[in-house]
Design brief:
The chain is of the alpha/beta class. It has two domains: 163 residues, Bordetella uptake gene, domain 1 (D-Maltodextrin-Binding Protein, domain 2, 3-Layer(aba) Sandwich); 117 residues, Periplasmic binding protein-like II (D-Maltodextrin-Binding Protein, domain 2, 3-Layer(aba) Sandwich), CATH 3.40.190.10. It is built from twelve helices and ten strands. Strands 4, 5, 6, 7, 8, 9 and 10 form a seven-stranded mixed sheet that branches. A three-stranded parallel sheet has the order 2-1-3, sandwiched between helices. It starts with 18 loop residues before the first helix and ends in a 5-residue tail after the last helix.
Length: 340
């Protein structure tokens, strides 16, 4: 006779998980571990973003930063503020990023000084490619070779000829030692075999005033500063130092077209992040900067200021920074240029 065991005292069969169960559980745990990071990436930004401009308010960098920041804030859903931190040839502003987390909430907006200063400043505190992550060029600023309208030189060949008739040569001004205007003019003088004396100023404004007053004879002047004087008939552009002609002055030939093949000096203003910023954050920020640069509002504003909008991807900007670091290091060494 079969013995009957009460239902409530029966022992349930032992559960033996299979390999398939372990794999499923492992996959679920892995997804749970990844979830916070994925959420964090998609949640960027969750607070305001700061663009540090290492120059005083009112200049071209400040103008560009505020123009793109206004549009970026709309699509990022967070305020994008501009914080001016001038001084030290950009070093003070760039230090702001170094001392912040690599999370994309602090960007710095230096000029080409980020690649010329390492060659010019002993003990420069940064390695531009090691310590920073290049995001994109916001604007290229062409340089024009300018003289007073009454200076007897219609082109570069005449400028060089004029220098060679004077024992002391010509003098040229710049907005400061180590700027692209200084280095570009020095490089041209070397290529042309002309004697030229550099006179540094504290900014483009005083330099232009001395050019108009006849104290200096020519300048490699950034187009944002040069264009108003050219349009007003106070300065004459002999050449542009870009690879192709400037859209705003189509009749003015390039330096290369006037007998100096391959000559190109460009100024740029670009955004850098702290090295180690997550790739997803870099790409999100790049997409929003590019979106702002592609708007008619920004392009028209830049064009009126003589600025060519940038927008190259981070990888291309990194290559540009690397090439410029090497070029300016070589130039400074060959021309024995110092900041003194």
């Amino acid at each position: 006779m079969q013995r009957c065991i009460p239902k409530e005292t029966r022992v349930p069969p032992t559960f033996a998980p299979s390999r398939r169960h372990f794999n499923a559980m492992g996959g679920a745990l892995a997804l749970m571990a990844l979830a916070p990071r994925a959420w964090a990436d998609t949640a960027f930004p969750s607070k305001q973003i700061r663009i540090v401009v290492p120059f005083s308010p009112g200049g071209p960098t400040d103008l560009m930063a505020r123009a793109i920041g206004k549009i970026m804030s709309i699509h990022l859903g967070q305020p994008v503020i501009v914080d001016n931190k001038p001084g030290g040839g950009g070093v003070i502003g760039m230090s702001e990023v170094i001392h912040q987390p690599a999370d994309g909430y602090t960007l710095v907006f230096p000029s080409i000084l980020a690649v010329t200063n390492p060659a010019l400043m002993p003990g420069y505190p940064f390695d531009t490619l090691r310590d920073f992550s290049p995001l994109t060029v916001v604007g290229f600023v062409p340089h024009a070779v300018v003289v007073r309208t009454d200076f007897p030189a219609p082109d570069l060949q005449a400028l060089v000829a004029s220098a060679k008739t004077r024992p002391e040569g010509l003098s040229y001004g710049s907005s400061g030692n180590g700027t692209s205007a200084h280095l570009g003019a020095a490089l041209f003088a070397q290529r042309a075999g002309m004697r030229a004396t550099h006179v540094p100023y504290r900014g483009a404004g005083p330099a232009v005033q001395d050019l108009l007053g006849g104290q200096i004879q020519f300048m490699f002047l950034d187009m944002s500063s040069a264009l108003p004087f050219i349009q007003a008939g106070k300065l004459r552009a002999l050449a542009v130092a870009t690879a192709t002609r400037f859209e705003g002055l189509p009749a003015v030939r390039t330096v290369a077209e006037q007998g100096y093949p391959g000559f190109e000096v460009h100024g740029w203003y670009g955004l850098l992040l702290k090295a180690g910023t997550p790739a997803a954050v870099v790409q999100r920020l790049y997409a929003e900067v590019k979106r702002a640069l592609d708007t008619k509002e920004v392009r028209d504003l830049f064009k009126a200021q003589g600025i060519a909008p940038g927008g190259m991807p981070p990888e291309q900007f990194t290559t540009l920074v690397r090439n410029d670091l090497a070029m300016w290091k070589r130039t400074v060494e060959e021309l024995h240029i110092t900041l003194q």
